[in-house]
């Protein structure tokens, strides 16, 4: 039996699995490993560090520093793409003829430059990125952030259109697939749902004692959702409301502390968030 190999280029280090965007990345690697695919993982690292856990699923794991800061801003390329330009990545990908899976528009600079034209290449769409950044602009009250998000959205729309015919694209939702086909005239666009680790029901029987909202609280749209729920729903209800997630702002902390029925759990560990989910009566999405 001939071994099957695959290069995966990840926008971030896909472990630990501590926020929504990482689930599809990590669980896909685990699923492919179970199918005996030899994975050559390439990660852009900017704070999550080297993760030994990944070695049990991959033939090799190579880390590249993401080039953040003013030098990575461009008038022509989106920041999320330009900050992940790396010559060593190209050298490593061209050492063999294995197919390449690019995780997110973020990792597609080499595709944009036509450097992967002799390799079978797939792009996993995490969002329609220009729409996502436009929504981020609508969610923030910071003029500086709003300006950045709007500029990034404009650059992304042009960029996504430019690369839409250069690879096989794999969308996470049918809506994203339709937008790519309609807006960008994508020739080869497929739909594959998000990979998740859940294969059984783990919720406890009976009633829970609280409602739960959890997510990356450092993202503007998630913060906006929490603030709306606190002000418009749970502010006048006797029902306990638990907010859990990474990097809550001072605004969220302040509102939570003003109400005895609201509890904030900042940056919970994996086992803590799983326990919170299983014991909640209602999970609010």
From N to C, what is the helix and strand string? EHEEHHEHEHHEHEEHEHEHE
Gyration radius (Cα, Å) is 20 Å
| Molecular shape | globular
What strand order characterises the main sheet?
3-2-1-4-5-6-7
Q: Kindly state the mean pLDDT as a whole number?
A: 92
Alpha-carbon distance between the two ends: 45 Å
- List low-pLDDT spans: none
Structural class: alpha/beta
Total DSSP E strands: 11
Which percent bin holds the helix content? Answer: 25-40%
**Can you summarize the main beta sheet?**
7 strands, parallel
**Number of helical segments with 4 or more residues:** 10
Describe this structure in words.
The strands form two sheets. Strands 3-2-1-4-5-6-7 form a seven-stranded parallel β-sheet, sandwiched between helices. The protein is 36% helix and 20% strand. The chain is globular. The chain is of the alpha/beta class and 285 residues long. α5 (129-139) runs antiparallel to α6 (143-163) and α8 runs parallel beside α9 (250-257). The model has no long low-confidence stretch (mean pLDDT 92).
Q: Which helices and strands occur, and which strands form pairs?
A:
Layout: E1 4-10, H1 20-34, E2 37-45, E3 60-65, H2 79-82, H3 87-93, E4 100-103, H4 109-112, E5 121-125, H5 129-139, H6 143-163, E6 168-171, H7 174-183, E7 189-191, E8 211-216, H8 220-232, E9 241-246, H9 250-257, E10 262-266, H10 270-279, E11 282-283
Parallel strand pairs: 1-2, 1-4, 2-3, 4-5, 5-6, 6-7, 8-9, 8-11, 9-10
Helix pairs in contact: 5-6, 8-9
């Amino acid at each position: 039996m001939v071994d099957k190999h695959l290069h995966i280029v990840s926008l971030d280090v896909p472990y630990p699995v501590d926020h929504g965007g990482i689930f599809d990345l990590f669980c896909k690697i685990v699923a492919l490993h179970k199918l005996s695919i030899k994975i050559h993982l390439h990660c852009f690292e900017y704070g999550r560090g080297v993760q030994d856990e990944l070695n049990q699923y991959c033939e090799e794991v190579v880390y590249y520093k993401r080039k953040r800061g003013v030098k990575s801003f461009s008038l022509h390329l989106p920041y999320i793409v330009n900050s992940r330009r790396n010559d060593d990545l190209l050298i490593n990908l061209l050492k063999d003829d294995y197919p390449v899976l690019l995780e997110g528009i973020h990792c597609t600079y080499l595709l944009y430059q036509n450097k992967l034209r002799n390799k079978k290449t797939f792009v996993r769409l995490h969002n329609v990125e220009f729409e996502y950044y436009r929504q981020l602009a609508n969610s923030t009250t910071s003029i500086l952030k709003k300006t950045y998000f709007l500029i990034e959205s404009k650059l992304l729309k042009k960029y996504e259109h430019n690369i839409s015919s250069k690879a096989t694209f794999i969308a996470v939702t049918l809506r994203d697939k339709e937008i790519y086909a309609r807006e960008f005239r994508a020739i080869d666009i497929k739909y594959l749902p998000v990979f998740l680790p859940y294969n059984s029901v783990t919720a406890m029987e009976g009633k829970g004692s609280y409602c739960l909202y959890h997510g990356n609280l450092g993202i503007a749209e998630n913060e906006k959702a929490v603030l709306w729920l606190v002000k418009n729903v749970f502010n006048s209800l006797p029902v306990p409301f638990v907010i859990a997630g990474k990097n809550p702002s001072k605004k969220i902390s302040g509102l939570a502390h003003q109400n005895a029925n609201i509890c904030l759990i900042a940056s919970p560990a994996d086992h803590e968030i799983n326990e919170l989910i299983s014991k909640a009566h209602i999970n609010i999405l």
